[in-house]
């Protein structure tokens, strides 16, 4: 709990640090904006004459002078229409001609466009004159505004002339007079003269000063500009102050940026986890909001924050930027960290509203498609594909390619099924059809494979049945022929024998062999009845412990003769099963008989009774006297014995009969072989009161 509290406090501190660092970066940028129009480039300017500020002081003056000399000249030039360009007047004419075309009855569709335009000039002569006059008046206003602006350039002297028109604020007109000032620019007669020489190295000079001057005629036009010492001293001081502010803000910005990035990365790593070792991401109530909605809110917050700062003046900015930024940054960071949690949880896309809508539509259509008939699927395709094409008309080749790929895939699936059916029809029942997809063809392939599996199983069962029949005939013939041959042989000997003692011996052998033959025929008959299920069953409550205890008492002599030690383990309380007492004992008697015939003399026999849910498990375990090189499944076959030489007196039907009798009583019978350990297990239904 203590470690968990420390983790929460650390996350909160990192969160606060990110907010403060972001706010610090914004305030640093605002300070540079107020001091130097947001230009951090001043940090790398080593000289005032290399600076943007120096060029900025000349740019507007140069632009005004070049416009006056090159375009407006004087009022007479403007009044005569000299400032109206062909493009400008052509646009005015097109505007009025369009009005004439749709509103004037004078326009005729029987005339050519050129003829209509000539008529338009006559009809709209007054409107054209007014439009021309309006353009002249606009240019006159601009001309006088430019003249007025020239009066605002204090401590900057200028002289501009094209040989006819002159614009100046000083009586000085010669280059030598301008060269007496600490800084000047002189353009004309294909020459440019700048002082001091550092001005030539200014990277902003050509774009903002030289390029506008080049629009003038170099033969007749000259432009001289000079800066007084007072002006330079004032601007140099201001530039140095701005550079100091920008440098300080820049380093502060780097510090805030570094700390903010490190804090944010820490939050990204630990957010959603209680510790570094914890890999499971825990979500909070904010994470229930869809990710794309949160992303949209982030964009809206950013735009609203920028708009608020944009509306603030310089004075308000210094006081309001911190509270506004902290508020918006806190909400925005919470939304961003929620997106990070979803990213780490692997639900960034899946938890979006767009994904949910598209996935719901996909599942709805897919469920209909998968569960519907071929007719429904065809209707869906016929209706759905044109809709997709209509919605994605801008990428029609892509949708067409997807449709072609889908059709080709279905055709291949159909061909795979067709080829598979041909192979199965030709007798290859082991062939499997694999279409590798879902849908009608997949289910059809699975059904055909199911038929093939059933056919293969039936063939295997038939082969096994034929093998068992052959083995049954062989085993029955062998087991019956042996005592029958002995009987025939001893009957022939008895006919010829005259010695009474020998006759008595032969009769005893005949008695043994006939009894053996009777046992074989009785077991065979009982096995046939048991497997056919034609034995009546009377279910009753049976005390399984008492039944086995009484049975062991009846065979005690056999147990002692084989020197066997029986370990009977059972619950202390009475255990009842629902079964037929006679049939259940017959099954147990067969198992005990099997043990007496095949168990190792002097070994232990274990009989266990235990509860197994709604069933009672009865287990018999013994050590075989013969090596069990046979599987448990083969031992369950009729006329199969544990001794491969078939030298014992068993018929090989005991286990088979026991299994059939147990199954008739709705129980289960299993056999397990582990080395020489033989285990028989009977599951019977527990009697319900």
Explained architecture:
By secondary structure, the chain is of the alpha+beta class. Among the domains are: 41-235, no CATH class; 535-685, 2-Layer Sandwich (Heat Shock Protein 90), CATH 3.30.565. It contains 21 helices and twelve strands. A five-stranded antiparallel β-sheet has the order 2-1-5-3-4. Strands 7-9-10-12-11 form a five-stranded mixed β-sheet. Helix 16 (500-532) runs parallel beside helix 21 (654-664) and helix 19 runs antiparallel to helix 21 (654-664). The radius of gyration is 55 Å and the shape is elongated. The relative contact order is 0.06. Residues 638-651 have low confidence and may be disordered.
């Amino acid at each position: 709990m203590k470690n968990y509290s420390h983790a929460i406090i650390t996350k909160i501190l990192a969160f606060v640090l990110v907010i403060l660092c972001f706010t610090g970066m914004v305030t640093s940028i605002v300070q540079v904006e107020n001091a130097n129009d947001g230009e951090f480039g001043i940090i790398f300017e080593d000289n005032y004459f290399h600076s943007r500020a120096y060029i900025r002081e000349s740019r507007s003056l140069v632009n005004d002078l070049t416009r006056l000399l090159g375009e407006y000249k004087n009022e007479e030039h403007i009044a005569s229409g000299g400032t109206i360009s062909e493009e400008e007047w052509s646009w005015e004419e097109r505007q009025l001609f369009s009005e004439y075309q749709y509103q004037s009855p004078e326009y005729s569709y029987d005339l050519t466009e050129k003829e209509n335009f000539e008529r338009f000039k006559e009809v709209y002569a007054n409107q054209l004159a007014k439009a021309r006059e309006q353009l002249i008046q606009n240019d006159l206003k601009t001309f006088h505004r430019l003249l007025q602006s020239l009066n605002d350039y204090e401590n900057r002297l200028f002289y501009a002339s094209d040989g006819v028109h002159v614009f100046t604020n000083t009586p000085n007109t010669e280059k030598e007079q301008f060269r007496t000032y600490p800084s000047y620019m002189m353009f004309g007669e294909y020459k440019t003269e700048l002082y001091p020489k550092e001005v030539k190295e200014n990277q902003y000079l050509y774009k903002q000063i030289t390029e506008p001057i080049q629009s003038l005629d170099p033969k007749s036009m000259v432009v001289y500009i000079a800066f007084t010492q007072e002006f330079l001293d004032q601007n140099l001081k201001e530039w140095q102050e701005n550079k100091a502010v920008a440098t300080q803000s820049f380093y502060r910005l780097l510090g805030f940026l570094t700390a903010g990035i490190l804090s944010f990365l820490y939050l990204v790593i630990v957010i959603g986890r209680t510790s570094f070792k914890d890999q499971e991401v825990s979500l909070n109530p904010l994470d229930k909001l869809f990710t794309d909605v949160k992303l949209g809110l982030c964009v809206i917050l950013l735009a609203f924050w920028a708009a608020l700062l944009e509306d603030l003046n310089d004075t308000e900015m210094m006081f309001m930027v911190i509270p506004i930024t902290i508020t918006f940054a806190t909400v925005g960071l919470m939304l961003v960290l929620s997106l990070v949690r979803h990213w780490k949880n692997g639900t960034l896309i899946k938890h979006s509203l767009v994904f949910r809508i598209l996935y719901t539509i996909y599942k709805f259509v897919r469920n209909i498609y998968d569960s519907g008939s071929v007719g429904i699927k065809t209707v869906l395709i016929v209706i759905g594909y044109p809709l997709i094409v209509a919605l994605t008309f801008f990428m029609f080749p892509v949708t067409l390619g997807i449709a072609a790929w889908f059709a080709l895939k279905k055709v291949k699936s159909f061909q795979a099924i067709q080829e598979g059916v041909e192979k199965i029809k030709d007798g290859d029942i082991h062939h499997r059809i694999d279409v590798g997809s879902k849908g009608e063809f997949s289910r059809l392939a699975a059904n055909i494979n199911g038929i093939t599996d059933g056919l293969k199983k039936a063939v295997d069962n038939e082969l096994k049945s034929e093998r068992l029949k052959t083995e049954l005939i062989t085993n029955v013939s062998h087991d019956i022929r042996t005592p029958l041959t002995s009987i025939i042989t001893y009957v022939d000997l008895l006919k010829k024998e005259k010695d009474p003692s020998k006759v008595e011996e032969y009769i005893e052998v005949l008695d043994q062999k006939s009894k053996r033959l009777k046992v074989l025929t009785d077991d065979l008959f009982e096995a046939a009845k048991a497997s056919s299920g034609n034995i009546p069953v009377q279910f009753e409550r049976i005390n399984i412990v008492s039944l086995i205890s009484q049975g062991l008492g009846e065979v005690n002599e056999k147990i002692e003769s084989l020197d066997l030690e029986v370990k009977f383990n059972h619950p202390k309380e009475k255990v009842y099963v629902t079964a037929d007492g006679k049939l259940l004992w017959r099954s147990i008697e067969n198992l005990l008989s099997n043990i007496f015939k095949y168990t190792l003399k002097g070994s232990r026999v274990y009989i266990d009774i235990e509860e197994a849910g709604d069933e009672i498990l009865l287990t018999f375990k013994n050590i075989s006297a013969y090596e069990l090189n046979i599987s448990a499944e083969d031992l369950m076959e009729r006329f199969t014995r544990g001794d491969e030489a078939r030298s014992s007196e068993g018929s090989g039907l005991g286990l088979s009969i026991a299994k059939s009798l147990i199954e008739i009583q709705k129980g289960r019978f299993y056999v397990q072989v582990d080395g020489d350990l033989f285990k028989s297990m009977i599951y019977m239904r527990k009697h319900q009161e």
